């Protein structure tokens, strides 16, 4: 789509997940009702949402055909992910742990340039759609860049470079992010192609936020509505601090939802929470409309648009 059509964009959401091994032990991931997911997207659209990123990559319950249907029915533009996710989504014998770096790079590139595969949760994916992924998902555990995680990260990074796409990096409170950013830049990714997730799960020590921002990457603040980590006031204070330091063009906002927080799945918060509650709170704290437009509209364009 043309960049100007992106509108309000939340770059880390979860729309729909088919049955996976992870759902057996993590019921909050059970986003398995497509009709409910479409209703959630409609609420997001009514509130002013235009675009979002579905952050579940290949072989973790992502269903490209279902996401396409959800997008067409709701009117919300969905950018899908290739790449890999946290270990809970995979069985110990899953191919993600054994495939070579070159094989994984090729697979991720094919999803970006040809079309996403269906399945992959149990066996190597075989059926390929014509629906292309729009960015690469990668993750770090608390161990950081080492062992198999480094192999996976290198494959994801190389795929993003070849496919001229951005890379979204799951972190545990930002741990290991600086080392990962250095590796990704060595592979050829520009800083503004890298989105670091979940740094705001801790909103007390601002130093790690500043260190990550100083590399030029995007900081994706997606813990909004995850009140077990902190309340809205702490998130707002973090944003105010980062704005005072001049990082307004590197900030992104999202909700990273689970089933227990989506209205259409019986939750009380909803994917539209940013638009209906949090952004008005920011206005009440003195955030200008121009600044909010930068964070929710202009920054996602620069963070997610395909490189030429």
TrEMBL record:
Molecular function, one GO term: zinc ion binding
Modification N6-carboxylysine, positions: 137
Pfam families with a match to the protein in the record: PTE
InterPro entries, sorted: Metal_Hydrolase (IPR032466), Phosphotriesterase (IPR001559)
Binding site for Zn(2+) 1: 12, 14, 137, 256
UniProt keyword terms in alphabetical order: Hydrolase, Metal-binding
Keyword Metal-binding applies: yes
Keyword presence, DNA damage: no
Tree of life domain: Bacteria
Cofactor(s) listed in the protein's UniProt record: a divalent metal cation
Binding positions (Zn(2+) 2): 137, 170, 198
Cofactor mode of binding and number, as noted: Binds 2 divalent metal cations per subunit.
Family indicated by similarity: Belongs to the metallo-dependent hydrolases superfamily. Phosphotriesterase family.
Full protein name: Phosphotriesterase homology protein
Lineage summary: Bacteria, Bacillati, Bacillota, Clostridia, Lachnospirales
């Amino acid at each position: 789509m043309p960049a100007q059509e992106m509108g309000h964009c939340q770059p880390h959401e979860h729309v729909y997940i088919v049955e996976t091994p992870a759902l057996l032990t993590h019921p909050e991931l059970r986003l398995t009702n497509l009709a409910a997911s479409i209703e959630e997207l409609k609420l997001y659209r009514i509130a002013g949402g235009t675009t979002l990123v579905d952050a579940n990559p290949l072989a973790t319950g992502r269903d490209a055909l279902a996401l396409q249907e959800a997008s067409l029915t709701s009117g919300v533009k969905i950018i899908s992910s290739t790449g890999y996710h946290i270990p809970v989504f995979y069985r110990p014998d899953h191919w993600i742990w054994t495939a070579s770096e070159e094989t994984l790079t090729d697979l991720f590139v094919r999803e970006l340039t040809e079309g996403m595969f269906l399945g992959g949760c149990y066996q190597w994916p075989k059926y390929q759609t014509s629906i292309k992924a729009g960015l690469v998902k990668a993750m770090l555990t608390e161990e950081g860049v080492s062992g198999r995680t480094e192999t996976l990260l290198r494959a994801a990074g190389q795929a993003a470079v070849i496919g001229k796409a951005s890379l979204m990096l799951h972190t545990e409170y930002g741990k290991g992010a600086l080392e990962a950013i250095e590796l990704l830049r060595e592979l050829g990714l520009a800083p503004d192609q890298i989105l670091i997730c979940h740094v705001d799960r801790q909103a007390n020590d601002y130093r790690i936020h500043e260190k990550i921002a100083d590399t030029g990457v995007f900081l994706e603040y997606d813990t909004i509505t995850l009140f077990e980590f902190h309340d809205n006031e702490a998130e707002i204070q973090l944003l105010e601090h980062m704005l005072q330091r001049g990082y307004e063009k590197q900030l992104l906002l999202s909700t990273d939802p689970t089933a227990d927080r989506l209205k259409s799945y019986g939750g009380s918060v909803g994917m539209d929470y940013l638009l209906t509650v949090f952004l008005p709170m920011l206005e009440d704290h003195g955030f200008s409309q121009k600044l909010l437009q930068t964070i929710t509209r202009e920054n996602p364009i620069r963070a997610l648009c395909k490189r030429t």
